[in-house]
Structure formats: C-alpha cells, structure tokens
Write a structure and sequence with these properties.
Length: 325
C-alpha cells in the first residue's frame, strides 16, 4: 500500500519509503532553508536538537505535505572537471550544514501552517537555540524528475541515503539572464538531461527566487547570506557512484552552461530524516529518532500501532486529515 493510502505514512519509520516523484509532485509550493549551526555548540548537538526537538514541532502543525531534514557535508569541488569561467569552490564559512525542505500542496495548506501558533511563534523563536544563521525561501516550480531508488531497496528516509546523494547549488552569472530564464535553463537544460542519465537514480530540481525577495526571519538568527554568491536554484541528485559527475558535465556543456552558471557548489548529503510524508507525521516526526531507533531495536511493533499513537499524540497523528474535518 502506498504512503498516500496509509493511515500513518512511513509505516516502517526507520527504513521505509519516502514519497515517489508522483507524491512529491502533488505539491505546488516548497520551503527551502539553508542553515549554519551555532559555532559555540558541538555540531552533533545542533543536529540532534534540529531533528528530535525542533523537527517534531513541524509534525504537530497542520499543512505540510512533506518535511525532510538533509544533513550536509562540506563542498566537494574535486568531483568536477575544470571548466573555464566556472567555479566549484566556496569559502568554508559560506557552506551551509543543514537544509530543511518542506512541501505544501496548496496555498490553503501553506496558510493553515502559517496561521498555526507553532509556525507563527514557537518554531521561529526556537531556531536560535541551535542555528547561527539561516536563509529561508518559499518557491514554486520544483519538480522531482526521476526517483528510481526503489530499485535498491527504496529510498531511506531515516538515516544515510542508500546511494551517493548531493545537494547541488547554482549561482547564476551576474546579470546574464532574468530569474525566469535562469529557472527555465536550470530545469530544461541541466536537470532534465541529467535525469535521463542511466546512473542518476533520483533527481529533484528546486528553482529559488532571488534571496532578497523571500526572506523568512527567525528572531535572534541573522538572515543575511554569508557571501555574495546566493543561490537561484538547487538540485537533489542521487547516483550509483561519484564518477557520474564527468558525464553530467559533458552532457550540458554544450548548452551554454558557463554563460549561464557562475558556480556550482556540491554538498554531499550524509543523512536524511523525514518528519512528514504524504501529509502525515512519520514515527520520527512524532517521537524523535532515538525513541524510534530503540523501538525498532527492541522489535516492539505494538508501539507503532495507530490506535496507541492516536492516544499518545491525538490529532497530530492524522496530519492533513485535520484540515478536512
């Protein structure tokens, strides 16, 4: 049974399926946030707080269709061959460590989320406890062009991805094209050809508005971008191996890539945690990952019974169903 038909999406919670392309493409609006952790706290404290304290707040608020947390490793310029006029480097201080990604199926769902006290006050006011800097943007036009991870035991939604996975962030060449034209170039002349490569297992493209046009602030957290190279779009890409980047570059060099793109920053995704899938909280979104990991290790299936979860968490268990009552 698909996640869309399950009373509790992600019934396996620890290793189950994230949404397919059809599930993700049912959403019209995306929320992307680039996060830099507080420098005075250990990285693992920031990441655990993000997942197990901050993250579960999203599972209690209505409106989200999907919510994931992508933990990023430092930029990997070594994956690309040299291209005249393009850069693959980025200063260490400008490299984000986390990327929350949320999907909303409609403006009405976005409004339901935004009007909830958790989204209005609690979540923004909590961000400074672990985030040192944040850049948040709302956008539309994102698409999952291929999601073939089902061929290798399904997409891992909690923990390390089952295949090398990257967030590729694109800096446009200054004043080369309009935002609309750059988004079209990113989707049609980069993402689409890459999605057809036999070694690309998953690809989602997310165009972004100019950063200054879509800042969502959190009190006490600076939202100024740490460098002049802001992103006008990003691609999530999973591949069979890292050697695919030579092919990917050669596939699009003839499309005036260097005339459109000034830089590509390549952040490996170490871990992915899914808080909401198909409009409903995952077990991780309800309990936090340590509890789910312990329940799975103990083999206690009763703790995942929907009636028990409803007793413990009330209507939060039903996610978007709350909006339809």
């Amino acid at each position: 049974m698909s996640a869309e038909n399950e009373p509790m999406a992600d019934a396996d919670a620890g290793t189950g399926h994230v949404g397919t392309a059809n599930l993700e493409n049912a959403a019209d609006i995306a929320l992307t946030a680039f996060c830099w952790w507080r420098a005075d706290l250990p990285r693992h404290v920031c990441e655990d707080y993000w997942r197990d304290v901050h993250g579960i707040m999203f599972a209690r608020a209505p409106g989200l269709w999907q919510a994931r947390q992508l933990r990023l490793s430092p930029n990997r310029p070594d994956l690309w061959p040299a291209v005249s006029g393009m850069s693959f480097d980025v200063p260490r201080a400008a490299q984000p460590q986390g990327l929350p990604h949320g999907l909303f199926r409609s403006e009405a769902d976005l409004a339901a989320f935004g009007d909830h006290p958790l989204a209005q006050e609690t979540i923004p006011n909590d961000a400074h406890h672990f985030i040192g800097r944040i850049g948040s943007q709302l956008s539309s036009g994102g698409r999952t062009l291929v999601d073939g991870l089902d061929g290798i035991d399904g997409p891992t939604v909690q923990g390390s991805p089952p295949a090398p996975t990257f967030v590729l962030c694109f800096v446009p060449r200054a004043k080369a094209v309009s935002t609309k034209d750059f988004h079209r170039f990113l989707t049609e002349h980069i993402a689409r050809p890459w999605s057809e490569h036999p070694d690309v297992l998953r690809l989602r493209v997310e165009p972004l508005p100019p950063y200054a046009e879509s800042v969502m602030a959190s009190p006490g957290v600076p939202d100024q971008w740490p460098s002049d190279e802001t992103y006008l779009g990003w691609i999530e890409l999973s591949a069979r191996n890292e050697d695919v980047f030579d092919d990917l570059l050669s596939d699009v060099l003839g499309n005036d890539l260097a005339e459109q793109v000034e830089a590509v920053h390549t952040y490996p995704v170490r871990e992915i945690y899914t808080i909401i899938s198909a409009g409903r909280p995952t077990d991780v979104g309800l309990r936090g990952y340590p509890a789910v990991r312990t329940i799975m290790a103990a083999g206690v299936d009763e703790q995942r019974d929907r009636n028990l979860l409803e007793l413990l968490y009330g209507e939060a268990v039903h996610g978007l169903d709350r909006l339809r009552r």
